[in-house]
Structure formats: C-alpha cells, structure tokens
Amino acid sequence: MNFFRAVAEYEFMRQALVAGVVVGLVSSVLSVYVVLKRMAFIGAGISHSAFGGVALGLLIFQSAERPDLWISLITAGFCLSVAFAIGATTQRGPISADSAIGIFFASTMALGVLFVGLRKQYTADVFGYLFGSILSVTRDDVIAILVLATLVLLAIGLLFKELLFYSFDESMAQASGLPVPALHHLLLALLALTIVVAVKVVGIVLISAFLVIPGATARLLSGRFRRMMALSVLIGVGSALAGLVISSYWDIPSGATIVLTQFAIFGAVASLRRKRAVA
Amino acid sequence: MMGAIECPNPVITVDHLWFAYDDVPVIEDLSFCVSEGIFIGIVGPNGGGKTTLLRLVLGLLRPNQGRIEVFGQPPERLGRRRHLIGYVPQRQQVDWSFPASVREVVAMGGYAKLGPLRWPGPRMTARVEELLELMGMREHAGAQIGSLSVGQQQRVFIARALVAEPRLLILDEPTVGVDSAGRQSFYELILDLKARFGLTVLMVSHDIDQLAHYADQMACLNRAVYWHDHAERLSDEVLNHVYACELDAFYTERAARAADHAADQSPDHPEGRV
User: Fold this and answer.
1) Do the interacting molecules here have an ipTM over 0.90?
2) Which of A232, A255, B109, B259 has a CA-to-CA distance to B93 between 20 and 30 Å?
3) Left if phi > 0, otherwise alpha if psi is -120 to 50, otherwise beta: which for B9?
4) Average pLDDT of chain B?
5) Domain range list for chain A
6) Which of A164, A176, A227 sits opposite B112 (nearest CB)?
7) Which CATH architecture has domain B1-71+167-191+200-274?
8) Closest residue to B104, CB basis, from A171, A219, A225
C-alpha cells in the first residue's frame, strides 16, 4: 500500500511515523556525543540491559491497565540503574569500562531470560522488543516517547556549552570548574532514556546502530560540532523516514530497514571521502 | 632547609603535603609557597610528581595529608573564584580531531565562569577576539583546531586559559613538540602575558635550559622539593645537580638580577620567596 495513503488512513501508521521521526531525531543528537566521547560500547551495554527491564515489565504488568506505559517506565528505571552502575564501577575501582559493561551487559540479559522463563506464556511479544516493531507502537508508547525525547533534548539544549567543553577536553573542563563527573552521569542517563525511547521502534539489538551511525557519518562530513549535529539529525530523521517508506512498500521489518538505510548512507559517504582523498 | 611556607602575597601555599596513588607515594611532605607575580618553573624526572602537583593545585586531586591553598582557600572550595586559575593541559590529553574551530575552543575557557543556562554575551565575545588578536590567531579563528601547528595550538590553549581572566596561569609541558625557535617566542609570549595581565605563572617542563632562562625561579620536584636559601647564578653544574634533584630549588639569573634590583630599592630581602 502507498505509505502516505496509509498514514492518512490509519492511526497506527501515524503513530509509527511520529515514533520513527522522534526516535531518529533524539538518537541522532545523542549519537554525536556517543561518537566523540567513544561511548559506543556503553550504548550497546545499556541497550542490551533494557532486555531485563522489558522482560520484568512483561512479567509484572502484562495484565495491568496500560501495560506499554508501565513497561516503558520499568525499562527506564532498569536502564538508568545499569548506566549509573557502569559509571560507578569504572570511577571507583580498578575495573575498566569495557569489563564493567561486559559484566552488566551479560548479567542483565541473563536476568531478562530468567524473567521471560518465569512468565511461562507465549513469548512472541518479546521478539518485538528485541528486533523492533514500529507498527505495534501504541498511543501510550507515543506519549512515553514524546515525554522522554523532550526531556533528553531539553537537557542537551540547556547544557549545550557544558557538554561541548566536556566532550572536547574533560581535564580542562574539570579544571575550569565544570562538574565533569555530573556531566558524565548525565550523558549516561540521557543515553539510557534514549534507549528506552527507541526500544519498541528499532529493538534492543539494533539500537546501537541508531546511537552510532548518524553521528559517525556526520563526523565524516564535517569538522564543526554544530554542523556535525545538524547533519547527524538530517541523517537520523531522513533514514527513519526513508526506512519506513521502504519497509512499508516492500513489507519488510522497519527497524532493520532503517538501520540498513543508515548503513547505506554511511557506506556512500565513506566511499566518496576515500575517492576524494585518493584523487 | 624545607621550603618556607610563609611568603608575601601568597598565591599558592603548600604545607606538609603528602599524596599517593594506591599506596605508591608520589609526593612526600612537600612544603612551599608562591608569591604573586612570580614565574616559577618546575622540572624533575618523569614520575617525580610534577603533573600530580599541578592536579593538586587545580583541586582535581585531594591531598592524603597536609594543606594546599590557592588564593587563600583549598582549590576545590574556590567556587565562583575558580576562574582565577587558568590551566593549559598536556597536549596528549586532547583529541585534536575534535570538530571545533579555534574560536570555539577559546570561548570554552569562559563557560564555567559564565555558569549554567547562560550564553556568551558581547563582553565575553570581545574578550575572545582580543585574545585571538593578542595570540596572533585571529586569521586562524575559523580553522579546525587540529589543522594548526603544535605552536599555534598551544597559543590557542593559552588564550582559552586566559578568557576567564585568571590571576594564576598553570602550564603542563607546554613546549613539547615545539621547535627551538618556537619555544623561544613561546617563552617571550608568556613573559609578555605575565606583565600585561599581572599573572603568576607556574610551568612544568622538561625544557630546562629555556625555562631556567625565562623563569624567575626554578624548583625540582622528585617526590619532595627543598628550597635553597640564597639566590645564585645558574650554571651547567647547577643544572645537572637540579635535574638529579640534589639541589632542588634556586633563583635563576633573572630572579637574581631582580633580587639585586629589589635590594637596591627596598630593605626587604627576597630570600625564601618562591
């Protein structure tokens, strides 16, 4: 079916469109910091820990009223706890960041598997959370996505200059009096909230692509921070729209299509850069 | 003799300071005092505690024992007076491929003084432009920071450290990677800035020859530092001694000349000052 006609006719398509665009926007803004602060593995760690939260939410709130909202809230709590636990483990002891991420990544996934096992029910809905199911985004999901995305964008907007300095030169930022540990934890929290926003749209397994590819592609295209962020947003939102149209046209999974669209843009930009460098 | 911890108009006072990383001592019972307007150079072997001392002065590390005060307060409690310290970190701490222009990097130096939810206004913008001009970096203001030469990058970082109008400028190995001619003009720039803005300068460097030529006073840090009582001329023999930290602090020729001049002008003797 024609994508635009479907959007005009069906509410679930409009919800999918809003969710896709907002997730594309917020994750591409954050992906600039993820790329510049080399936080891609932390992003992957927190996103996989979301599985524990989703499975716990499904276990407890499946029969509750408005289960999607509850699952989003419990996943947010889970992701924030893991983000802060990774931050605390790496700051206070001899455990390196990648070891801490590896520990929480696997343990929270194991917890998720345990919760899924405890449900003793049909588990097809879990698959939707793992690989994304944008067409099953509900009105409550859209509300949760809009609220959390607004929080994330507001925090980044208000602390733009502080986050810029922290991203460039942590040591000097701290020496000049900026609260660097607080900024680090804030960035982890924003990462966790963005992952919650993106879980249903793109899936736990594929979220890291949203958090890395737009920023990495924009990095290849620009040597200025603000321009890099604008390009990252253009790529994030553009690929979300393109991915939705393509997936709707060929009736293929939307989350994977969006990620592959992002990858195609990255590949094209990287090749063009290489060609230009050789020439 | 251990360094005197009393000095006129002290900017930095360190009193029986001890610091260790995981029980490995780095600084042992260090006491010294830096008077306002002094350019002090600190040399010493790798692992001698030079950068650790700077991080303690900046308040980025807390002493295990002892007292450290900058402008009369522990550095971590300076609060809104924090901008009084300008810092130029080591080159390797920075990601030079970061997508920021020279102008953006210089402006960053004023962000903490500005405070949250406030944006640079005309006064700060004018200060950034003034410093770019002073550092000879105006024509490169739009360039990406990593595209500059090492010497130019250091000038940008000094401009950044000066945006918030500090009174103490701390530099950690600022001449690494700068050629000999560049180093000379770098030190002359530091002297010019010191005079222009009334700065006290604390510089850590391995560049002992030139540092000793331009600094008012030198100190050698190898876990502990000891102050020499009398001003004396700098010789190769002294240099060799100092780097081995057998003789740990002394007045340089510049300071000796200044001391002679001060003795002519005033009854106060500079002995014991740092």
Assistant:
1) no
2) A232
3) left
4) 82
5) 3-278
6) A176
7) 3-Layer(aba) Sandwich (3.40)
8) A225
User: What is the tens place of the pLDDT at every residue in B119-158?
Assistant: 889 999 999 999 999 999 999 999 999 999 988 999 999 9
For A3-278, the fitting CATH number among 3.30.565.10, 2.60.120.620, 1.10.3470.10, 2.40.50.100 is: 1.10.3470.10
**Beta-bridge partner residues of B168:** B85, B200
- Tell whether B2 is within 8 A of chain A (Cβ): no
For residue A215, give the chain B residue with the closest CA. B99
Q: Would you list the domain boundaries of chain B?
A: 1-71+167-191+200-274, 94-166
In this prediction, what percent of chain B has a pLDDT beyond 90? 48
Q: Residue B117 and residue A36: Cβ atoms within 8 Å? A: no
Size of interface A-B (CB pairs under 8 A): 80
CB of A178 within 8 Å of a chain B CB? The answer is yes
